[in-house]
Each structure stands twice: as structure tokens, then as C-alpha cells.
Design a protein that fits this description.
single chain, 385 residues, alpha/beta, Rossmann fold, Glutamyl-tRNA Synthetase, domain 3, 3 domains, 3-stranded antiparallel beta sheet, 11 helices, disordered C terminus
Length: 385
């Protein structure tokens, strides 16, 4: 490739903001909310010719630089994170130990760590092992080991969610005492069929309240059939709005979510709220696949009388086929990368490069990245091959 490099930054409102990461050949990842497509070309003329080919005839802007990364100038405030870093906003990373952490998980962990440490805040690690069937003990120990190998640290002991179920059960009892719950006897299939149907202003997939207003006789009839009920929140179709540090203003309606599963285990949305409050978590940085659940969690926090944390939802890393990154995409875990001859330091450099904080082959430490990380700026990639 020619040493004369031109980096074309194209801002396209209609493009999906998620980026594709080729697990066989590192490619850039978009770390900001604003839809930006980063392309690298060998010469300026090709870049100019490809601008139109990228479908960027209207509503686009681009800039060309040579040999270095340039942060684009965004129109308006989209892509910027409102607010000032708060040293009291304890951060956390809370993976489920159902498999090894892949590059997307590791990148989210790095971002969560950087948000907290750059603000001088504490950073916690919690293992969300609610599901005893899916939990694997090798991942309970393996996930923290991978984070430590990258140089990420945390404050205090690692907490396991399963060891503090009493907190969640107490919260459920409080909601029951306030008349905010009801038993749900719907089967999984019935819920899926009901959720697939349109329900006016409720979001697709929302529970329509089938069991909400059952009479005592109807509940007795369902209980007599042997069905074990889940426990749902009587949400009242409330709308919740909040400011996400990456996505801006987000609003969603809260359906009657499950608080306790049919096996008696507290549901994720309840447990995560209770545990974040108990641990004093002030800011949650996580993948945007959890964005639709955030209004539910904020509503629950308010019902339980606790202050919700602030949120920053980062785009997911996708495989070459456009689906969520998974083992089928190839070398996606730290162990996979080690098998290819890459060290944890190499992987850290690559992850940092996807955030525009380093070159893919640049030796860096987490401390180096803290000094370079600015949470008030859009996250832009180093567009290297």
C-alpha cells in the first residue's frame, strides 16, 4: 500500500451507527452515537471518487487527512456526551458467566473502565450469575482473568449476583406489599404470540397484560392446572425519558415486566437495579442491546426509592455478516487471539485503536489510555487497515 494515505470520513444520517469488525483482519469500530462511516483509501483521488459511491450525495460531510487521525466536526451536538465527569459516579462491568468474553465484551469493559477511571471514580466488577443452568464456573474465574490480562483493575472484591438474592427478594416483597405486582400464568409461547401482535402505543414485544386483571376464580383455575406463575410488575403503561451520554434523549414505555421468574429466581431487570443501588453504582456503560431495558430499570429504581445511575450505551461490535459478534465469527476471544500469536497487550492496542486512542500496533497501557480518553468528545476510530 502506498505511504500516501487519505482518510475519508463520511457522515451519513441514514446509516446504521454500528460498525462491522472483521475478526480475521482488524477493521475500525465506531464508538460514537453519531452515524459515521470511516474508509481508508490509498490516494486522495480514489477517496473523492468513492465519496459519491458510498451513497453520500446529500446530508454528508467529509474530511481528508494524511498520516494521522482527525476527529470530524459534527453538525449539532449529536455524538457528544452531555455532562461533566463525576468522581462519585462509580462505574462497573457486570458480565454473565455463560461464555468467554469476546472482543465486543472486552471493548465495552475497557470503555466502562475508562469512563470511571478518567473521572477518578471507583470501578467495580460484578458477575451476574442469576441463571444457575447457564452459569459456568470456568467463566466465573476466566472473565476476570481476561480483564486483568488487559491491565484493567477494579475496586474491592468481585461480587457474585447469586450471593445476594436476598436483596432482590426484599425488593420484590416491597413491591408486592404496595400492590404493584400480579402473578402471570402465561406460557412462553403465549407470551411470544401476544408480544408479536401490535398493541397501540406499546413497543413491539411488550407484554400486553394478559393476566393483569384476572379474577380470583380465573387465577385459581390456572393455578389448579399446575402452571407455576411468574410475578410481574403492574407498571401502568408509564413513559420514561432519560439522557444517555452517547445516544442523547431516549424515551420508552414500560410494560409489565417480570420481577420473579417461574423458578423463583429474581429477574434480570429487577436484580440489576437492586445490585447497582446496593453497590453505589452511579454510571452504567454497556452495550446498546440493553438500551430498550433502560426505561424499565429506571422506573423500577424510582419505585424502590433509589436514584437511577446515568447511562452510556455503546454500539455493539458486529461480525462480518452484520450479526452480533460470536464465536462462529472466528478469533473473537482473548484465548483465540493468543492462539494466533497475539499477546494481551496486542489486543489492548487493537481495542484502543477502535476508539481512536492508539494505533493497532502501538504499545499502550491502560494508564496511557486514561490520559488520552476524553468522555466529552465523540469517539472516533483510527482508520487503519
Amino acid at each position: 500500500m502506498s505511504n500516501h494515505r487519505a482518510e475519508l470520513v463520511i457522515e451519513v444520517d441514514r446509516l446504521d451507527h454500528r460498525a462491522i469488525v472483521d475478526t480475521q483482519q482488524p477493521t475500525p469500530y465506531l464508538g460514537s452515537q453519531h452515524p459515521v462511516l470511516l474508509l481508508t483509501f490509498t490516494d486522495l483521488q480514489t477517496a473523492r471518487e468513492r465519496r459519491k459511491g458510498a451513497g453520500c450525495n446529500r446530508g454528508c460531510s467529509y474530511s481528508v487527512t494524511h498520516g494521522h487521525v482527525r476527529r470530524p466536526q459534527f453538525r449539532g451536538s449529536a455524538g457528544r456526551m452531555p455532562g461533566v465527569a463525576d468522581p462519585n459516579a462509580t462505574g462497573r462491568f457486570a458480565p454473565s458467566p455463560t461464555g468467554p468474553l469476546h472482543l465486543g465484551n472486552l471493548r465495552t469493559a475497557l470503555l466502562a473502565w475508562l469512563f470511571a477511571r478518567s473521572a477518578g471514580a471507583r470501578f467495580l466488577l460484578r458477575i451476574e450469575d442469576l441463571d444457575p443452568v447457564a452459569t459456568r464456573e470456568e467463566h466465573v474465574t476466566g472473565q476476570p482473568a481476561d480483564l486483568a490480562a488487559l491491565g484493567l483493575d477494579w475496586n474491592g472484591p468481585i461480587e457474585r449476583q447469586s450471593e445476594h438474592l436476598d436483596r432482590s427478594h426484599a425488593a420484590i416483597a416491597r413491591l408486592e406489599a404496595e400492590g404493584l405486582t400480579y402473578p402471570c400464568y402465561c406460557t412462553r409461547r403465549e407470551i411470544q404470540e401476544a408480544a408479536a401482535a401490535p398493541h397501540g402505543k406499546d413497543p413491539m414485544g411488550a407484554y400486553p397484560g394478559t393476566c393483569r386483571d384476572l379474577t380470583a376464580a380465573e387465577r385459581d383455575e390456572r393455578a389448579a392446572s399446575g402452571r407455576r406463575p411468574a410475578l410481574r410488575l403492574r407498571a401502568g403503561d408509564v413513559a420514561v425519558a432519560f439522557e444517555d451520554r452517547l445516544r442523547g434523549r431516549v424515551e420508552g414505555r414500560v410494560d409489565d415486566l417480570v420481577l420473579r421468574r417461574t423458578d423463583g429466581i429474581p429477574a434480570y431487570n429487577l436484580a440489576v437495579v437492586v445490585d447497582d443501588a446496593a453497590q453505589g453504582v452511579g454510571e452504567v456503560v454497556r452495550g446498546d442491546d440493553l438500551l430498550p431495558s433502560t426505561p424499565r430499570q429506571i422506573h423500577l429504581a424510582r419505585l424502590l426509592g433509589v436514584e437511577p445511575p446515568t447511562y452510556a450505551h455503546v454500539p455493539l461490535v458486529l461480525g462480518p455478516d452484520g450479526t452480533r459478534l460470536a464465536k462462529r465469527h472466528g478469533a473473537v476471544t482473548l484465548a483465540d487471539r493468543r492462539a494466533r500469536g497475539e499477546s494481551p497487550s496486542d489486543v489492548l492496542a487493537y481495542l484502543a485503536s477502535t476508539l481512536g486512542l492508539a494505533r493497532p500496533d502501538e504499545p499502550v497501557t491502560p494508564t496511557d489510555l486514561i490520559e488520552r480518553f476524553d468522555p466529552t468528545e465523540p469517539l472516533v476510530l483510527d482508520p487503519r487497515d
